[in-house]
Structure formats: structure tokens, C-alpha cells
Amino acid sequence: MRHRSGLLAAAAILALSATSALAQQTYKIGSSVGLTGYAAVNDRAWRDSLLLAAETLNAKGGVLGKKVEIVAEDNRSEPQEAVVGYRKMMSNDQVQIFDSGCVSAGNFAAAGSVVRAQIPMVLCSILPQRPEEQKWAFSVLPPPRFEIEARYQHLKDKTDIRKVGILHDPTPYAMLMKDLGSKIAKDMGMEVVAVESYKQDDADVSVQLGRMNAAGAGAVIKMGQGGSTVTTAKNIKALGLDKMLLLASLDDGATFKQAGEVLGDRFLFVAPGVQIPESIPAGPAKDAADAFLKVWQAKYGDRDPNAGARAWDSFMLIVAAVEKAKSTEGPAVRDALETLPSIQGSFAQFNFSPEQHVGITKNPFEIGVVRGGKLVALK
Amino acid sequence: MTSPAITSTRASWRDHAGSWLPVLATLALLGVGLSSSGYIVTVLGFAAIYGVFSTGLNFFMGYTGQASFGQNAFAALGGYGSAILTAGHGMEPVLALLIATTVSVAIAFAVGYPTLRLRGHYLAMATFALGLITYEITIEWTSLTQGYMGYSGIPPIGLFGYELVTEKQMLVVLVAFALLGVWISNRLRRSRFGRALAAIAGSEPAAAALGVNVAGYKLVAFVIAAAYGSVAGSLFAHFVGFISPEVFGTSMVVLSFTMLYLGGIGTTWGPLVGAVIVSLLPEALRGLKELQDVAYCVILVAILIFAPRGLAGFAPAIKQFFNRGAAAKAE
Asked: What is the pLDDT of residue B23?
């Protein structure tokens, strides 16, 4: 009996040490993603791309000899759920860094406790507002200015349209774009004649479009994602606004294709090179996009690569920071992220610094159009 | 021969066991929280906050038998009131909570006075509109609420400069608020006021015939529910440190209804029991990943089928069990 107890104790100790050793050999990356709710399209792609990136890296041996494990928790696109998920990943799963999706409010709500635990966050969303939280957060979202500049520049260079209307939803990113859009219009030779808002679940924006048309807007600069873009396109057509252009913001390819079917060449959108790969000239950017697309398309076929590419890049940035820091400790990785050299990703080039926690500093956007059911660059 | 168990005026511990059981269970949960990770503390913290919210809603929906789909409006008032006063103007959190609650009570009175003359579906629609209007205000009045950007930097609850720094300290306070809320609810339910509400819930014309000021009592129940909702909103803001309009959306109404009906609407402890179950159950099922929602709904439906009066509906059976035990011992 005593002999059996001794064996059991030895087995327990071995099991414990094996678990501990396994934990030390694993680098855990937490991800709070909206797998359901308004952010589902983007965040599902974000989660899937992180898993794909981890699988690819682990096949090559991992980072610093450790396998990478992605712990993803669904925040249902709600801040309260995000807080619970973040705390679970911190205290139960003991993740060492976060690489989270596009639910800004969820990331903001959890930022306080994440920062107190000294865990860095790489985010699909904009940065939290407080400086002490921004110190630990890094955004791979293009600054709102780039989307607007690309569209204004196109109108200025390729059309006679100088009067535009801004149509925005109330999300933080769209609100930032709306303010900037009004501010920089004059500098770019444009005039904003109407600013109208809508809710993401609005089934009709005819009233807003009618006001814009009455104010003389020749193009709608839309700021916001999802089905509302298709609704806007349908409303423009139904109202008989035959000369009005619709320029949509960064979104999933499926949305673009639907809107393009309605308005044809009058529907334009901003897109990173990876979304219309033939637009990228040969060079490092093309190589990075192709490297991602090869793995992505092998697994997901013609699924839109927009959100997936950014998630892939965010993962590679974390890996680069861990390798630079030669450590997986939160503060060391945070410091390394700030001092990474310029890195060419599949979505864009990233340039972080102690003063610059929004990594995309060069405009990565092209103007695209839907032709033959495909997204192509407008030449 | 007369049984002492029947004639004795001294109540044994078994007589009170049924009443004390929920308190002990709540304290046991608190004990579990205090010895657990931050994750469990967070989940229990939200359960306590929703316990306060649902207990308030129970005054209006359970005790008084009225419909309210707009209680989230008062949680938003409390939450944003506390956030603006503390993070925006540096006020003491407890003082901010009290001011926000006072404002909510005043608004509830002003809104409730004309609205509560409505009945049935009309009252339900009016309260629903109240919730939607408040939600829209939190989104659109960005100079005050910061819209979807949300309000961050809200300090933890505290008084005279002393802040509850750790989550476990905050959990103790949240549970204390929940228990205080239930205690007040219990006292009021057993009072003349509570009996008047029960009469209104049974039949408004009959209550009026008995001399009950129906409109007045309904208004007071609505205002009390608003005060609870406001306190819950303030507690949420101080617990999380961040609020945004989504927190106080229609999902809050749906969640609180689930808590009420699952725990037992019209019972004293039901709302808190429902809040704990609805908060803990999804976490217990989190491992099921994509099937989590399916399993959660199946369990909820099963509970409602087998316990149509809510989990608190089992309370008489539990009391009977203890009483039977006492009688058996006496024999």
C-alpha cells in the first residue's frame, strides 16, 4: 500500500513538472475577438489568420525554441464580454501578449487591467485614449487620414468632382475619419457640402443621400463598414442619382463585390495592395503579400485577405519583437516592439517607435473597382 | 400530548434556515471569489452588479406586475453620471454615485408621472422608447458622453481619497451592495407598501377599490427600480473603469429579463439567484467554444420548463425540507 502511494506521488510530481515544462516551452498569445456581433466578419478572419500564422511558425520550430499557442476568446463585439475574456486569458490561461481584433470598445474597456499586468497589446483597432494605456498598446490599423487622402486625391486627379458629402456611422474609427475628412478637405482642394450619419443596422439612407445631392455633392465619401455600403449603393441607384459616385472605406471584399454589382464603375473603394495583388509593383511589398497569400489561399481559397493580412502582420511583428528582445516577458517585448526596425508586412510597412505606436506610417491604399465580379485596381 | 415544536414560541435555527440559506450561499460565493483568480472575481463582480439591477427591476415587474423595457436608461444615467463626475470633474466616487442616483430618481419621477398612466402594452412600449432615447443620447451627445469612443479613466469606488485598488476589494463592496439591495427589497416587500404593490399586481381595479393609490404606488415602485438601476450603472463604471453606449443597450434589458425569469420574478432572492446563474453559466460552458450559445440556451429552456416559477420557486420546498427535519427531531 505504501509502495503504491509512493508511486502515485512520484507520478504526480512527474506530471506537474511535465506540465510546467510544457508551459515554459509555449508562448501564449491571447486574442479578444468579436466572433459574433457586428465585428464578426473582420474578427473571424483575424482569429483564423492568427491560427494560420501560429501553425506556420510552429512548423518551423516556433520562436526562441517555444511553440506559439493562440488563445482566442469571443467578446461578442461587446465591451463587457471583452473584459471577462481578457481577465480569463490573463489569470487562467496566463497569456504573455495580446493580439486582439477590431472591437475598439472591448479593447478600451480591458486596457486598464491589461496595462496593470504589464502585458503588451497589439490591436486591430485604434489605440486606447489614455497615455498610460497607449504606452502598452500598438495598433496595426492604418491612420484614418490615409483612407480619406486616397479618396480625395483620386477625385482631384481623375474627376471634376470637388464637392463631396460625408456619410459616416458612429463607430470610433468612422468618427475620427469624419472629423479629419472635414478638416483636410480644403487643403486637398475639396469641399465638404454635407455631413450625414447613419446607424450600422439602418435599412435605408435615402434621406441622407437626398440631402447630399441637394447640397451639390458629386460623390459620397462613406466612412463605415458592412452591409450599409450595399444599402447606400442600392439607395443611390433607386434615387436615380446617375452621376453620383460612392467611395467606400476599407472593408471586406464580399461587401465591395455586392456594392459593385449595383453601381458598376461608380462604386470605388480604398484597398491595400494585398486585396488587389496585381496592383503591387515587384519588390519587398509584393514578396510579403505573395508569401501571405500563398498560405492564406491554400487554406481559405478566395476568402478576402484584408483583415487576415493585418492579423498575419501583427503576429509577425510580435515574433520579431520576441526575437529582438530574446525574451517573452511583457515589458521586454513591449520595449522591443517600440524599437523594431521598419518591417515590410503583407498589408503595409510598419514603423513603430517610442513616439509612434500606430505602425502604418505610409499610405498603403489604392483605389479599387469591381469588374467581372473581381476587385481590381483602378488604373 | 402537544408537540413542543408546534407550540413553542422560540424559533429554532431550522426555522430560519430557509431565510438564511441564500445569505450563506452568497457569502460562500464571495469566499470562492476571494480565493480565486481575477477571472472568477470579474464574473462574480458582474453577477453582483446585475443582481442589484435585477432586484430593482423586480420591484416594478415582479412585485407590482408592470412591464418595463427601459430600465437600461437609468443604468446609463448612473454609469455616465459617475463617469463624468469622477473622471471628468475629479469628484469622490461615492458622492458621484449619490448625485447620479438622485438625478436618476428625479428623471424617473418626471418621466414616470405621465407614463405610468399607461397600461399593458402601451406602458411596455413607452418604457422601451425611454431606453432607446437614452441609448441614442449616449451615442450622439459626444461632447458629454464621448459617444462610441467611450468614457475611460473612471476610478474604482472609494471615499475620502481611499480607493479600492484590487478587484477582490471591489468584489466585497459589490456583494455588500447586492445584499443590501436584497435586504431593502425584502423589508419593503413585507411592509404596507409591499402589500399595496402585491394588490396592484393582482388587480389594479380591485386595489383601487380597496383604497390603494394605484398610480402613486406604481410611480414609487418605478422610481425605486430606477434608483437600483442607477446604482448598478455607477457600480459598473467604477468596477470596469470604462463605459460606452453598448454596455447599456437593449442586450442589458434582455439579460436582466432572463435573470428575473430564471431566478424567479416576484420573489425576494430570485433576481440575485438569476444574476449569478446567468453570469456563471456561460463561463462554465466556455470550453464548448462554438457550441457555447447552443448549450446555454438549452439549459435555460430546460430550467424554465422544469422550474416555471424560477429557481427561487424551489424555496418553499427547501423550507419544507428543513421544517420536516425539525418536526422529525421534535418527535
From this structure: 85
Q: ipTM greater than 0.90, yes or no?
A: no
Among the partner residues B247, B286, B292, nearest to A79 by beta-carbon distance: B247
**pLDDT for the residue B7:** 44
d(CA A225, CA A220): 14
**Mapping DSSP to helix (H, G, I), strand (E, B) and coil, where does residue A166 land?**
strand
Q: How far is residue A299's CA from residue A48's CA, in Å, rounded to a whole number?
A: 10
Minimal C-alpha gap between B236 and chain A (Å): 10
**Mutating which of B34, B138, B145, B242 best tests the A interface, going by the most A Cβ atoms within 10 A?**
B242
For residue A366, count CB atoms less than 10 angstroms from its CB and return exposed for 0-12, middle for 13-18, buried for 19 or more: buried
Q: Which residue has the higher pLDDT, A77 or A212?
A: A212
For the stretch B50-90, pLDDT in tens is 999 999 999 999 999 998 999 999 999 999 999 999 999 98
Residue A344 pLDDT > 60: yes
Q: What confidence tier does A336 reach under pLDDT thresholds 50, 70, 90?
A: very high
How is domain A144-249 classified at the architecture level of CATH?
A: 3-Layer(aba) Sandwich (3.40)
Q: Which amino acid is at A9?
A: A
Name the residue of chain A whose CA is nearest to B249's CA: A78
CB A109 within 8 A of CB A132: no
Closest to B39 measured CA to CA, from B208, B165, B171: B171
Domain A27-142+290-350 and domain A144-249, same fold? Reply is yes
Mean pLDDT of B291-308: 88
B210: cell is 380597496
Which residues have C-beta within 8 Å of that of residue A77, sequence separation ≥ 6?
Answer: A34, A36, A37, A38, A39, A40, A43, A103, A106, B246
How far apart are the C-alpha atoms of A142 and B92, rounded to whole Å?
Answer: 39
In this predicted structure, the answer to whether residue A19 has a pLDDT above a threshold of 80 is no
**What pTM, to 2 d.p., does this model score?**
0.85
pLDDT of residue B13: 55
For β-strands B151-152 and A374-377, DSSP reports them as unpaired
**Is the CB of A92 less than 8 angstroms away from the CB of B37?**
yes
**Which residue ranges make up each domain of chain B?**
20-249
Tell if the CB–CB gap between A170 and B240 is shorter than 8 Å: no
User: For residues A165 and A209, what is the distance between their CA atoms, to the nearest angstrom?
Assistant: 8
Which of 3.30.420.40, 3.30.390.50, 3.90.950.10, 3.40.50.2300 is the CATH number of A27-142+290-350? Answer: 3.40.50.2300
**Could you say which of B153, B243, B286 has the minimum Cβ distance to residue A130?**
B153
What are B223-264's pLDDT values in tens digits? 999 999 999 999 999 999 999 998 898 889 999 999 999 999
